[in-house]
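The methods section describes the discrete structure representation at length, but only in general terms. Each protein is reduced to its one-letter sequence and a matching series of backbone shape codes. I believe one specimen quoted in the main text would settle the matter. An entry of this sort, consisting of the sequence and the corresponding backbone structure tokens, reads as follows.
***
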Amino acid sequence: MRRVSTDSAELFIAELKPLKGDNLSDWTKHRTLRHCKTMFKSAVIWGSIPFNPFKHIKGPKLRTTPWHKITPDEYQVLLDAAPNPRWKAFYALCYTAGLRFSEAVSLRWSDINFLSGEVELENRPGTDKEPEFLLKDYERRTITLPQTTLDMLEQTEAESPYVVLSKDQYDKIIIRWQKHRQSWKWQDAYYNAGREFERHLRKAKIKAQPGETLSIHTLRKSCISNWANELPMHVTKELAGHSNIATTQKYYCEVDSYYRTKAAEVIEQLLKPELENE
């Protein structure tokens, strides 16, 4: 590692090639660069090397895939299409609290304070009776639920310790956790959730535009986008559980048609007194 210079680091990233084929995707190059930065940063902290040769290397500019922002009206129609209160609660936690799939599925009733309306998200070690839960980037956070979501949760029957899991689903995940701890994923608790979501979308007649993505994760992204439109960026970052504010700025600060119209209205209001005086 001591022999790696800035020039050789740049050359390494520039000449990255796949084992098969001709080219690597920009995402793969970007991920490799990120891993190199992290490893060499740790080596600097440990005193093994004097500087990080990858620190100032810029990765390729990544193109973001357009996604369908779910409107409040579409969210209400989706709730109507949901087959039972647990599915409604699942969608509400993703759309109104910005929870990731695994965060919503693993949310326990004991994580919700119905008096304050707050949800506590933090890492939990696994036991024989409870699977482990690890937050992405270990970003512990507290989120206040809107009253409509709290009312919905209070109407949901508590069949298991987990908000959106039935007793049958709970029993199955405990067995799976006990047998397959090394390969445990909370996504397995809601097996075929993506397929069911698509079925609910068809029933609700919600469609994405050509080229747009629309998945369960879109519910979370729509929530964060709504926050970003109304809240300071650092607040949105903390609520979303992003480790870096650059992620929040990059993906949730897009200027859409609403804000283009709003910008025109702002100028119109500023000029209105001048126009009236002429």
The chain has a mean pLDDT of 87. The chain is about 50% helix and 5% strand. The longest strand covers residues 118-121.
